[in-house]
């Protein structure tokens, strides 16, 4: 039985015009129904191998995953214990599953990591999306920066950005995540800075002039949320770095070698999860 998908992720530019400047602005919009709404919840602690009714908001979560009857997912009970379950049935008001294994550890990190990544050329962003999902990030936001590609340029020859939500779902299933990362439509750099305003630690990778390493930038801090800004090939412009600093973002470097943008995103996220998250 097919559990009807209530929404279809589609990546596109969401543009408005600023009343103060008259310029076009890329608006922050989540395009894949990720985040807390995609977490499949159990209303009670289950008994293994016994059919259990899912929580009342299961329809929204299952739609985000485009789930079908018979497929296996990770779900969470009221004690935040994680289980592997098989979806058994679904209807307008009732969704059921059979839990068959309790996981030893939660698959969702207690550390929220948001990655804002300048759009790379070719298909490198697809690799980034897959690996960041596996590494447990909460949100991925593509950016159009001074030196980056634009969504229009990437999709000019063959439109592939519409596949991005599918890549997150596939990677999330493979690594047994309980929640899909939020995926945003591309934003400009100024908008990206507003999206990281609430993060306790905000780091921008700057391999040319940053006086501190990423590890030094975190130091003895044990934040609950970290935002990472990853530049394109060629890095951020000096103006962008200055604007980020004014917004409380700390420029840091990863090491003595220059990394490709997709490598930098994966390495930085791995380091943060290893230092203060759930890796290692």
Layout of secondary structure:
Elements: E1 15-17, E2 24-26, E3 52-53, H1 58-65, E4 72-76, E5 82-90, E6 95-102, E7 112-118, H2 124-134, E8 139-144, H3 151-155, H4 164-174, E9 182-183, E10 187-188, H5 189-195, E11 201-205, E12 212-213, H6 214-218, E13 225-230, H7 238-246, E14 250-253, H8 261-276
Helix pairs in contact: 2-4, 2-8
Features:
single chain, 280 residues, alpha/beta, Ribosomal Protein L25, Chain P, Alpha/beta knot, 2 domains, 8-stranded parallel sheet, 4-stranded antiparallel sheet, 8 helices, globular, disordered N terminus
Describe this structure in words.
By secondary structure, the chain is an alpha/beta fold. It folds into two domains: 40-102, Ribosomal Protein L25, Chain P (Beta Barrel); 112-276, SPOUT methyltransferase, trefoil knot domain (Alpha/beta knot), CATH 3.40.1280. 26% of the residues lie in helices and 23% in strands. The protein is built from eight helices and 14 strands. The protein has helices spanning 58-65, 124-134, 151-155, 164-174, 189-195, 214-218, 238-246, 261-276, and strands at 15-17, 24-26, 52-53, 72-76, 82-90, 95-102, 112-118, 139-144, 182-183, 187-188, 201-205, 212-213, 225-230, 250-253. The strands form three sheets. Strands 7, 8, 9, 10, 11, 12, 13 and 14 form an eight-stranded parallel β-sheet that branches. Strands 3-6-5-4 form a four-stranded antiparallel β-sheet, with no helix packed on it. It has a two-stranded antiparallel sheet with strand order 1-2.
């Amino acid at each position: 039985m097919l559990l009807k998908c209530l929404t279809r992720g589609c990546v596109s530019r969401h543009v408005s015009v600023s009343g103060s400047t008259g310029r076009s602005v890329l608006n922050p919009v989540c395009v894949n129904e990720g985040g807390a709404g995609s977490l499949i919840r159990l209303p009670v602690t289950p008994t293994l191998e016994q059919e259990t009714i899912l929580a009342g908001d299961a329809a929204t979560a299952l739609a985000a995953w485009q789930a079908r009857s018979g497929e296996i997912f990770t779900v969470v009970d009221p004690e935040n214990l994680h289980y592997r379950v098989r979806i058994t049935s679904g209807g307008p008001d009732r969704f059921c599953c059979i839990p068959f294994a309790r996981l030893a550890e939660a698959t969702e990190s207690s550390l929220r990591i948001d990655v804002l990544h300048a759009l790379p050329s070719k298909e490198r962003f697809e690799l980034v999306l897959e690996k960041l999902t596996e590494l447990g990030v909460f949100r991925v936001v593509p950016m159009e920066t001074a030196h980056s590609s634009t969504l229009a340029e990437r999709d000019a020859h063959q439109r592939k950005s519409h596949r991005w939500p599918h890549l997150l779902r596939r990677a999330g299933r493979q690594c047994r995540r309980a929640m899909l990362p939020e995926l945003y439509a591309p934003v400009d750099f100024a908008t990206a800075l507003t999206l990281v305003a609430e993060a306790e630690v905000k780091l921008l990778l700057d391999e040319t002039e940053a006086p501190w390493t990423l590890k030094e930038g975190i130091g003895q801090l044990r934040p609950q949320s970290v935002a990472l800004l990853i530049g394109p090939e060629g890095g951020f412009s000096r103006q962008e770095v200055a604007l980020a600093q004014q917004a409380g973002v700390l420029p840091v470097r990863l090491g003595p070698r220059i990394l490709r943008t997709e490598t930098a995103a994966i390495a930085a996220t791995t380091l943060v999860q290893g230092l203060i998250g759930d890796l290692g």
